[in-house]
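Journal club side-thread
Mid-discussion, someone asked how the predicted structure for our own chain would compare to the paper's figures. Pasting it here so we can look after the session.
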Amino acid sequence: MDRRNLLYISAAGAAGLAGVGSAWLKHDPQKLTTGQTNAAQDALWAMSFDTLDGQPQPMSSFRGKPLLLNFWATWCPPCVEELPLLDAFYQEQKAKGWQVLGLAVDQPSAVRKWLQAKPLSFAVGMAGLNGTELSKSLGNLAGSLPFTAVFGASGALLHRKTGKVSK
């Protein structure tokens, strides 16, 4: 291989790597600025979601203790696979002050039917299709499910995960 071909191959490889890196950074679903996340958190704590029996559940009632907030749907296989794990986490950690809220991005009738067959011990709220936009504002820019966000007792967002959680 002559020197000119080697130079072309090296330049093409470097350009390809730069392109992949740039695309990865642009499409990082967890990348938000501090201002964006603070505004999203403020908006979240001002919201209220209906419970399965139609009663309003203000998010402000969850402030003051750590909260694991999970966005899920009955039609999402990884979502329903992780719910027993989240329920076990809640059972093990509630005495330590942890709270879990599952926000269903789904129809209330489908959620009620699913929960009749597989009850959960933690709170469930109805986010409906607006739940996708809310999860995006918290860092789930792709809007995919499941999405989990962990908040400290102060209400600050500490961690977020797109996809199924594991032990």
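Post-session note: The chain has two domains: 1-30, 32-162.
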